[in-house]
């Protein structure tokens, strides 16, 4: 009797599910039939055009003009931005060559003349004296001092913009040469021409490196005496 009762309850549940399904189908059939009837009436009462209207051509022409104007404005803005970037690069290049003042130019000319005179005297062989040691000769360093200097230069370069940190290997070598020149200079103070070593390390490269070091506050620029001097300050 217990099993019979359970089976009877299951049969009742299934019959209720069938009734619910029948009700759902009836509701769907009525809704679907109403939709088909509405579509049929709409097809009989509404005249759908099979070709674009004149207004459609005017709207398409208007949209094409608007797109052309927008494209022209975007192209104009792009050209203006490109021109600004070109002018900025040109200004940076011009600044690199205008950094040297008139006293520096005179000093460089005198230095070139003195160098040429010294070379001519040495070639002529008239003077029996030995050549004098250059005042700015690079001092010899021990292995420990070289290692310490290399570590200090690495710390300084790591604080500079990306182009000095390895993006441009040539510029990184120039920066290391400029830093060593500042460290080895008497009183750690030099003029811009003292660091020029053509052809690789020209005036523009030296000036670019010095500007980066001054901005990082590793080097101090002083022009109070009428001559631009660069003093080595070290890592702040």
Automatic annotation (TrEMBL):
InterPro entries: DASH_Dam1. It is found in: Chromosome, Centromere, Kinetochore; Cytoplasm, Cytoskeleton, Spindle; Nucleus. One of its GO terms (biological process) is mitotic sister chromatid biorientation. Residues 118-130 have a biased composition (Low complexity). One of its GO terms (cellular component) is DASH complex. The keyword ATP-binding does not apply. Residues 118-148 are annotated as: Disordered. Keywords: Centromere, Chromosome, Chromosome partition, Coiled coil, Cytoplasm, Cytoskeleton, Kinetochore, Microtubule, Nucleus. Pfam families: DASH_Dam1. The keyword Coiled coil applies. Residues 61-95 form a coiled coil. Belongs to the DASH complex DAM1 family. This is DASH complex subunit DAM1. It comes from Candolleomyces eurysporus.
